[in-house]
Amino acid sequence: MPFTPAHVAAVLPLARTRLPLAALVVGSMAPDLPYYLPLPVGASVTHFPLGLPVVVLLGAVVWACWTYALRAPLAALAGREAGPPPAPGPRGVAWGAAALAVGALTHMVWDAFTHPGGAGVQLLPVLQEPVVEPHKVYNVLMYASSALGLAAVAWWTARRVEGPLRPRWIPLAAIAACALAGAAVSRLAAGDALDGGYDLVRVVLLGAVPGAGAGVAAWSLYWWVRERGGTP
């Protein structure tokens, strides 16, 4: 699979539309949630068009958490103030659901050409041609698209940062430590079952992302309780 945050690049061209950008971003990554969280549905459901309602529902939960619990604490990590969250309303919810669906569809299309069982891989036999064993063309496409996607997201973000940032290094270091701890636990849990460098990278990432998420959740709780003196 392409590294999950790289999927955000696919929705950036829609940033100036009426679709909420945060919901687009969440939707573009939501199909990968079963990789990182113990959910009652698997990735085979969330990467298939018939599973789109499930993805939208999962994404809606994440979008709400971002809007009302995580946005302000994460802005504070950069020394910024997020401002008040938007007031919920029927029209906003409808546009948000549409954005989640659009984002999820971009993810499914992307993965269709980079997953071994993807529809695009099955449709285009050239994607199954070997490059350097055990890697095939779709593997190379996955690596390249992940790198390009991450670069595009970094470039887009950097262009929109106004004024100097004042990072809070101690909580950032703590979140990084949580990511490293998650990666280490995932690697140890895999034992000797890894088959080459690809499996190693995949296992490390599947541990690092939940680890970082736990760190972000802990920081957000601290920020609301100790720094704001209240709850979201």
From TrEMBL:
Pfam families: DUF4184. The chain crosses the membrane at residues 51-71, 137-157, 169-189, 201-225. It comes from Nocardiopsis flavescens. The keyword Transit peptide does not apply. Keywords: Membrane, Transmembrane, Transmembrane helix. The keyword Metal-binding does not apply. This is DUF4184 family protein. It comes from the Bacteria.
